[in-house]
């Protein structure tokens, strides 16, 4: 039986997918991401991570390294990072250069979360590397090892890229914290083998049933390293908090409908809850939405706090990230404020 986690032990962070409303613009969505980060810092959240999506009509965060710089420049204490950079699209050297540069501007505040998923459909993934051939995801472990070496200037003499540095000058006192992100056992095993922290994507809505087992596998596979002596697990959940359960469910209808967009050919961003809550949907879409709802943490501050504590206990961690997607920016800000107050993290 998993040990019980107390609410007072939990640290909260934000993972922002930079959602866009229907009829809005990418510029507005991105400005809201920066504004939300400022509010998250004020509320006491520990980290602010931004996601990477491509060819999306619902999310505008396709360049996390640029967003991180904007957010870090607008805040002063909160850690800022990627949740995450989809490493197979890029070269390990280029990503190391980008994050060494960010770290030079904001030392001690930059996190580099990396994943191997495309963050898009396969055709878009091809476009991201064209005219070069797409990266072989089986080489992801080598890419991670190379990235760590470029970040730390520890490329060995035997390496084909020996002598290449990610940034001129002596090594900084600190380099970005590197996290492996995942929703399956592959990244969990790799994170354990390399002795890196591991963040599990419970917020997908389809991974929570096996997520705690994946986190346990990571702990079993973990080998102490210069990065960590003990396993470190983050779990990120999809949550929406409002003064009443009824209002939370109403606001969440925008997110729920968007999640079922693939079954309804919906494009162009989140619909307002007044439309989303009464939108005519197919039976397949309805069943899909209903299958996801149990994984979402929606409701009053008390209900959300109780569910987050329960999930944290299942994963045996006190490190919890929160994704909140809804139509109105004011509702999103209020949700993060209410959760922060419920856990008294300010």
- The backbone outline, from C-alpha atoms, is globular
Average per-residue pLDDT, rounded, comes to 94
Alpha-carbon distance between the two ends: 31 Å
Oligomer: single chain
**Helix coverage percent:** 40-55%
> What percentage of the residues does DSSP assign to strands (E)?
5-15%
* Low-confidence regions: none
* Structural class computed from helices and strand pairing: alpha/beta
Q: Tell me the major beta sheet.
A: 8 strands, parallel, barrel
**Radius of gyration, in angstroms, nearest whole number:** 20 Å
SSE order, as H and E? EHEHEHEHHEHEHEHHHHEHEH
Please provide the count of β strands: 9
Q: What does this molecule look like?
A:
By secondary structure, the chain is of the alpha/beta class. It is built from 13 helices and nine strands. Strands 1-2-3-4-5-6-7-9 form an eight-stranded parallel β-barrel, surrounded by eight helices. Helix 6 (185-194) runs parallel beside helix 7. It is globular, with a radius of gyration of 20 Å.
Short description:
This protein has helices at 26-43, 64-74, 92-105, 122-129, 140-152, 185-194, 211-221, 245-259, 261-264, 273-276, 283-292, 301-315, 329-343, and strands spanning 11-16, 47-50, 79-86, 110-115, 177-182, 198-201, 233-241, 297-299, 319-323. By secondary structure, it is α/β, with parallel strands linked by helices.
